Please model this.
Amino acid sequence: MLKISDGKIGIREFVALILFAVGTKATDTTPDLLIFPGKNAAWMISLFSFLFMLVPILLLLRLIKKHNKGLTDLTFMLAGKRFGTFIVLVLFAIMLSGLLITSRSYIDIVNTMYYQKTPISFLYLLLVATSCMIAKRGFETIGRTAWLMFGWIHIAGILLVIFLWDEINWGFLFPIAGPGFMDIITNGAAYSTIFFELFLLATMFPFIRSYKEFRIASWIGFVLSAAWVTLLTMLYTVVFDFPPVETINFPYHQLARIASVGPITHLESIFLGFWIISAAIHFAIILYLVAYLFARMLRIDEFEPLLLPFGGLTLFLGMFPDNIVSLNFYREALFKFGSGVILALPLLYWILDIWKGRKKNNAEQTA
Amino acid sequence: MGQRERQTHTPLTDHLQSNIDTLQSIFSYPKNKSFVLRELFVPTIQRNCAVIYLDGTTDINAIENHIIEPLIQTLAAESAQMENPEEDEASTLINHVLATLRITKETTIEAVAERMVNGFAILLTQGSLYALSLEATGFEGRSVSVPEIEQSIKGPKEAFVESMAVNRSLVRKSLRTPHLICEELTVGQISKQTVSVMYMNNIADKELVQNIKDRIEQIKSDAILNISILEQHIEERPYSLFPTVLATERPDRACAFLMEGHVVLLMNNSPTSIVTPVTFWSLFHTGEDQYLRWPEGNFLRVLRLLAILIALFTPSIYVAVSNFHVEMLPTDLMLAIAATRERVPFSSILEVIFMEITFEILRESAVRVPSVVGPSIGIVGTLILGTAAVDANLVSPILVVIVAITGLSSFTIPGVSLNFAVRLLRFCMLLSAVMIGFYGIALFVAFLLAYLVSLKSFGVPFLSPMAPHQPSSKDMILRPPLWKQWLRPFSVSPKDKVRTKKPEGNN
Model:
């Protein structure tokens, strides 16, 4: 009877996980990074990133199907023990620094926009502690919590658009290509890291009920989160116009400030609420992935006790950067490096797979 | 442990007087006036016998008419005609003389004593190595009356009473099917009580039933006096704010749960039954939701959800808005609140905590107060705490409104357990709001959701079939019309997942 609590998740939960791991980026400082090079066509950058990621994701799905293994197991199998460990180390390092930088930037947003007088360390502690507690309850719980909030987040997002409808001027989107298509396309490649978490969630393949569910969920999650990032970035442009949008640091929160319904003109606290809930789930996922990758790298079976130390580490290291400006600088560098890694890795795996296959065939033929 | 568990088995002897002496010493006879002994000569078998019972547990009329009278008045000659040489004395008595329905043979003193405390009369016979226990149970109890906690407008108005036999009959009356199984387990090491485990053997999952039975059998306690105590022994998370079993006093609800594959436990001395496993939805629903027509039932559901949210969040939102997010309020309202708070010397946080605690005290006193002085509570509550506290500038008027709507909303939450959970969570929520406004509330909600999702009741996730998603009739926040509820909730893994055939036509 306990079939339903076997620790595995299905399509719905996995889609929600991807949305919370990737889609949340539309509401943090990621659009800032996109708007800087993309100007008024920033929304197209994420669209092109999506297109660029299609091939790697296809390759990865194909490899996962062929070997029926998650990302890390696949890495060890194809790249061997030493090189595999190195690759996982790189992924882990990107993920951990991403966790540090992003979490700190979330706290900076909260601090600047809502709680100027509250110490950053206190805000940070609360967020990391909550994420730790959620992550500690296991992957299944994170997935189900994400699924529970899935509908509400969509309702909140749609409400935001409705409340802002009067402020929208579609003319702000033109000239359509912004700085020119070449710029957009190259930046699209450079910012493929937006989907880094989607890529890394493939590590969790063993926790999904079947390959079919994994594949369907990955595609739905991929398209959905790309749609949200693109739509929200577009919304920032059509509401604020370019260039003003470039000078706005936290467009989602500024949007929430503008949103109004009837006599209540300030709804940002409601949207802050939804945003904080998604942030807590977002970091729970990232924290879980970081701990899992670390454990896989060192081949430790028990990784849930690692969550608390990693939470503490995030808190400790996250306190170092001075402010959001330096964070954005780190973040941009990380994005560009990460993009290279996720665009190249599946290709590398694919080549390795063919090479190994040939070697095996040769060996069989000679034998 | 071992000493308590080890049960001694003293066999009965064939000497009548020595058996009587042993039993008398167990029940401390001359001191204990409940022990009743009636010695008689039974002509049918030409032996001396003794009828023993405990006063207060038996129905005296039944003993006189169905046991003693036939024993004395049936003549040997009558039974001699029917005599079967292969029969022993006991079988002769059972087959030709005794008129009680349930008769068992007991061979040990302990078994006899246990039978006696459960309302059986014991017939000891000279020269026989066993005793006959004859059912003559007659405990005093009240008759079936209307439900007092879970009232309904349209539904049946019978409630469980303190007698397990009556309660079982109330369930059987609604579910007339041979598939309804009633198993009996014994709990308690000193005072042994029977627990009835009821389930539908064609619907309830076998492992689930076994799991619950194991849990009951594992209880190590000297006495489980009633089902509320049993509930706390079998629940999974004793420290959790959320219950993992549901107590209901309505036989119709118990039957509805049985038909979904849940297990219902009944005990003597308990006017409630407990249903397990439960999900959040079973705590959230009432029987009325299904009895009323679709629009009416759903209206109540939405109202109830709203009430739960109001009861949970209003005080904390007030604190958050008035302390951290003042800009949220329309200017006029903000000024109005500020004007009323002008003369109040306390911070709004202190005010809220003060009023909330006062309200809880008021509520508890209304439950405990003898009903004769009950009305005075209303006067004290409304006049002194409402009007006078505002006049004395202890609290602002808006706060009275907030506490009143919170309190009122919390009364609509069905079931004692969920009610308490919401009331207690309200204070946790208040604490996070006091600490850091909406940021704290949101983080607490995120944690609460994760906690609720990971909570399980006998292996069934608390928020299923919503998260994790399971096929069901979607009877969660809203309910579909009855003819669309053709699926049983898969979360309790019913053997038979379908109530009726899938309705055809436009749905």
Summary: Chain A has 14 helices and no strands.
